[in-house]
Amino acid sequence: MPYLIALGKRGLRILRATIWLVCLCLLAGCKEDGDAAVPLTRVKAVTTEIVEFAPTVTLTGVIAAVVQTDLSFRLGGKIAKRLVDIGDHVAKDQLLARLDPEEQEAELVSARAGVSSAEALLRQTTASFERQKGLLTLGNTTRRDYDQAEAAMRSAQAQLNQAHAELTLAENQLAYTELHADADGVITALRAEAGQVVGQAQPIYTLARDGPRDAVFNMHEWGLANLAADHGIVVTLVSDPAVRALGDVREIAPAVDPDTQTVRVKVGLRESPRAMALGALVNGTGPMHPHKVVLLPWGALFEIDGRPAVWAVDPRSKVVSLKPITILRFTRDRIAVSDGLAAGETVVSAGVQLLRRGQQVEIVAEAGR
């Protein structure tokens, strides 16, 4: 107290100003320490590079015959017997199934009787014509009776011809009760059983003919449009990849399957290994046409208004902004960007969920692609 009295009023003012100055310095120091305590968001990033992108596409399909036919009876009836099953190898003209022939056999008997009747009538009219011919030579008959005898003979001949035609038709109808293979091949489908009544031309069996084989695949339109198949498609057996063959695109379905949104493609095998049996699972691999793209890791993908986008980092301010992109293709660990990015840009590759527009970031790892 005596010390303060000795200072006087001027000394008190100086002391008071000094105390305020110290307090302000302390407050300023605390504020600076507080600002330094808030770190920037740390992200990983990559530098974009435009590269040639020509991946191979691999699809799984099945081996099928180039020619498959549905076998059916030429007339309707009840199946009396079925002689082969699915998977059986059959030879050309081999009997596969038989209809109940009772009706056709009755028609054949009737046709044969008609032929016999027509033959008897022809013999009778021919004999009458020969008598009239001899009498006309001697002048003992009229021209009218001669002409009538000749007309009756010709009519009997026509009836005999018709009877023979009906007999042939009846014989064919009886033959149609048997179903025969039209070529060597394998039965791949069965659509009727013994005892079932079937209609004319109703498919009973499906026969895959021996000979060339196809590998059949269902392909997306994008893959179909970008497939470079000029040098062939490599086809390998799923169960044994060492079994392989080369094939060429032989047929493309004209329409997209509405259920799978894919197009059926048939690849004709140049040679068919024995292990590639009908129905065997195979993989088909072919190159795609090259494209200029930027490859980014999956972690870089974001979205803006439902469209794909990425976070681009300004190289000077380290501030991020969203850039919409066009994705050409997704691979196992990358995305191929065909539009929206140029070479040399910095793109966030990890930590995109923590970002907002105009945010400043700290890049902790940057790698060129």
Q: How would you characterize this protein structure?
A:
With 369 residues, the protein is of the alpha+beta class. The protein is built from 4 helices and 24 strands. The protein has helices at 2-36, 102-138, 143-175, 221-226, and strands at residues 41-47, 50-53, 56-65, 68-72, 77-82, 89-90, 95-99, 178-180, 185-190, 197-198, 203-209, 213-219, 233-237, 244-252, 263-269, 281-287, 291-297, 302-304, 307-313, 320-324, 326-330, 334-339, 346-350, 361-368. Strands 1, 18, 19, 20, 23 and 24 form a 6-stranded mixed sheet that branches. A 6-stranded antiparallel beta barrel has the order 3-12-15-14-13-16. A 4-stranded antiparallel sheet has the order 2-17-22-21, with no helix packed on it. A hairpin with a 2-residue loop joins β18 (302-304) and β19. α2 (102-138) runs antiparallel to α3 (143-175). The longest helix is centred in the first third of the chain and has 37 residues, at 102-138. The chain starts with a helix and ends with a strand. Mean pLDDT is 86; it is low at 1-7 and 30-37.
